[in-house]
Amino acid sequence: MFTISPKRLRQLKKFIYLMVLSLIAAVWMVPVLWTVSNSFRPEAAIRRDSAALLPVPFSLENWQAMVSSSMVPRWFINSIVVSFSRVALDLLVCSLAAFAFARIPFKGREIVFPLVLAGMMVPYQATFIPIYLMMAKLNWLNTYLALILPAVGGPFGVFLLTQFFKGIPRELEEAAYLDGAGRWTVFWQIIMPLSVPVLTTLGIFAFLGAWNDFLWPLISVTNREMLPITVGLQYLTTSWGDFKHYGKIMAAAWAGAIPVVIFFFFFQRQIVRGIVIGQR
Amino acid sequence: MSTTPEFRAQQWSAGTKSATIGQRWERFWLRNRDTIQGYLFLSPQLLFYIAFLVIPIFYGAWIALHRWDVVGTTRVFVGLSNFQRIPSDENFVSSLKNTLIFTLGAGPMSILIGLLVALAVNKPYRGMGLYRTLFYLPSVLSVTVVGLVWLKVYNPEYGILAHVFRSLGLTPLRWLMEPSLAMPAIVITSLWWGVGFPMLVFLAGLQDIPQELYEAAKLDGAGTWALFRHITIPGLQRAFLFIFVMTTLGSFQVFGQVYVMTGGGPGGYTRTLVMHVYETSFKYWQLGYGSAMAYVLFFLMFGLSLIQLRLMTSSVE
Asked: Which UniProt keywords apply (chain A) (predicted)?
């Protein structure tokens, strides 16, 4: 007689479960795998057989062509400059405001705080036309300023940091005030160092938002030199949209995704936590 | 006990009687120090907030009351006629319809798939983090990358889907060129792109449900379905509401996928509201009318935005 012990049965069930889950996950990854692989195959090989899921024969020619004969490197640098400036400025501006809301009993605080939070309700589709006209009047279209400034100091960041600052025990600050420290010192030397985890979380989301921003750069930048990569890639489809340039355009697309993918693998835990903070 | 600046200010002002101008200023400073410093710390944020939120809201309304044409720079006050024009604008009506179709397709599906994936990876086995990572990974990609990748996937000649169809003996579908298939294709891409978010929210919700509830119910002889129906689903109520609000708001603003993959076509079957506002404003340069429609979009979303605000601000306590 053929019998299976309960322990064996459990193991078998687990094995089948993992196999099925792996299969689904593999299917989920096919678009990524397929396009990344083809970016590493010669265009001629892609034309012969476009179904390959592995980079065989392996070649760097598409990536080299993309770097040397397109504006992708320039756009990449634009995106780096814009994204990092936006994150740095956003974190600074939000922290300063949050410190005021969390720690300074100024007149009008009970009115200003909810007003700032209400800003979360305004989608940027509702404001991009007036902001465009303002930028046009200032002659800031096609500059980094237009790409950086409008997204700085968002209400959600202020809210998140205010909550976090409120949770920091006051004893530390009181000792500093006793020693004659002012608020600026307390902010820089006590609150900010203690807030590195929440600043990291907020910074990651600000970075992803900045790097992946699409609609605003699409309208505020028309000069190709100044495009961030997310929008630049879209322009590439006019010159490399056909099948002949399949490998090159995928190399460009994934080049544009490198920073966010690196960020993702580095900061996975913070990203998960950030999403959880948003809902609890 | 307390030596906060507020307290020191009180002490100071209590101890003085008559004063010179310098002392008066000193006293004024100390008494209003909190307010002055408070606004000093707040000022950068307030500046951005006023410049890029408060002013644009009012300026946008002002623009919406004009025939505002950038190319010829005409600017004629037309009252509410931009708003009156909206109901009879066929493209507006069809783009509203398309947006609703997208929302009704993507919303429930992302809740369903997000929940299924969350349940699937919420096991005490080793390596579940890897699956979570894989399902979330597409969410960090930009809309252009996702759009370009799926343009290739859907291509009826050499796309990977076409290969799959052919190997099954079927004729490959012309996904993005067929009026009846284009929007479903956009929905599928959006699900692939965005399902990581509901998955993570559901996962967090699942991990918040006390394990004892399940154990107690199992002792009472409850089956798997009963556990799911009476413990898991009620335990995820907040997650459901949060995801519903967020995905609906997101769906109403869908733009990038459509712009990259179909440009609104074929025949306007994937033109969404934001796409229409974008085209009206930055392709045909009717900024007044575009602004009026942006306002309508804002109002359509207002109720949900209010719930979103309450959900997000009531949460972190």
From this structure: Cell membrane, Membrane, Transmembrane, Transmembrane helix, Transport
